[in-house]
């Protein structure tokens, strides 16, 4: 692939102020795309992320703090991206939250929030991005699902339901646009050492009175045969590939990068 083959295109990555989203944003910027960041965090830190991205990759960036659980704020985010850069060429639906509990104990408000952010927000961004993509007859929609979009785990009912639903949305979006230059695919990571996962590692270390490193190994041993975490940079490289001409006939896939998790 040409190093800067996305030069002049704009990528909107939701939940991109840390973790997987930031890794993907940086990978797309390295390929030349301008970036619209979204997510929560300290304003000074977000400004520093923007500045670093602009200087390192010679691209333009913007930031919008839309709450992805609210349709009106998502609409404002998409309008902002259009006003700033003319439109969204690459949409990466990455924003997500997690909560763990048995179904009978699962707080209803947590279920609603997880479905809203992990699934419904992707419908809203997609429906608002498609008209511009159709006008250009080019677009890439990349949904960050999860290995939990392919298999389930106990105590994660809302997350598993949302991610399975997101893969369904991916397939439908791909089929509706199959004869256009717009593709839609899902990436399904296994364990990635994000701040969200680090919290689970910390909790396990405290619960079992073991070191953080031992807690990481124990977490991986349960599900991920490789015994290694997937990295945001690896996920970013896959996202960049999905944007290339080589991937123009990859449509509606749920591509797992999970160290062998779903192969078991």
TrEMBL record:
NCBIfam families: PHB_DH, PRK12429.1. It comes from the Bacteria. CDD domains: HBDH_SDR_c. PANTHER family: 3-OXOACYL-(ACYL-CARRIER-PROTEIN) REDUCTASE, 3-OXOACYL-[ACYL-CARRIER-PROTEIN] REDUCTASE FABG. It holds the Pfam family adh_short. InterPro entries: 3-OHbutyrate_DH (IPR011294), NAD(P)-bd_dom_sf (IPR036291), Sc_DH/Rdtase_CS (IPR020904), SDR (IPR050259), SDR_fam (IPR002347). This is 3-hydroxybutyrate dehydrogenase. Belongs to the short-chain dehydrogenases/reductases (SDR) family.
């Amino acid at each position: 692939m040409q190093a800067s083959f996305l030069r002049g295109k704009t990528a909107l990555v939701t939940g991109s102020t840390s973790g997987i989203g930031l890794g993907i944003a940086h990978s797309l910027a390295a390929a030349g795309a301008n970036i619209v960041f979204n997510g929560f965090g300290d304003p000074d830190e977000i400004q520093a992320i923007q500045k670093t991205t602009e200087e390192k990759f010679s691209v333009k960036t913007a930031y919008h703090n839309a709450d992805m659980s609210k349709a009106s704020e998502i609409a404002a985010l998409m309008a902002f991206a259009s006003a700033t850069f003319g439109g969204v060429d690459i949409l990466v639906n990455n924003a997500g939250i997690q909560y763990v509990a048995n179904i009978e104990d699962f707080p209803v408000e947590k279920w609603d929030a997880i479905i809203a952010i992990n699934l419904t927000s992707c419908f809203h961004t997609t429906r608002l991005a498609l008209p511009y993509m159709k006008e250009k007859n080019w677009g890439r929609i990349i949904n960050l699902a999860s290995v939990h979009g392919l298999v389930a785990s106990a105590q994660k009912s809302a997350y598993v339901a949302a991610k399975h639903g997101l893969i369904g949305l991916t397939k439908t979006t791909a089929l509706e646009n199959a004869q256009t230059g717009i593709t839609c695919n899902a990436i399904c990571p296994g364990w990635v050492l994000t701040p969200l996962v680090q919290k689970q590692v910390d909790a396990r270390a405290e619960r079992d009175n073991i070191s953080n490193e031992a807690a990481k190994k124990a977490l991986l041993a349960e599900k991920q045969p490789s015994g290694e975490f997937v990295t945001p940079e690896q996920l970013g490289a896959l996202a960049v590939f999905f944007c290339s001409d080589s991937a123009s006939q990859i449509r509606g896939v749920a591509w797992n990068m999970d160290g062998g998790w779903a192969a078991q």
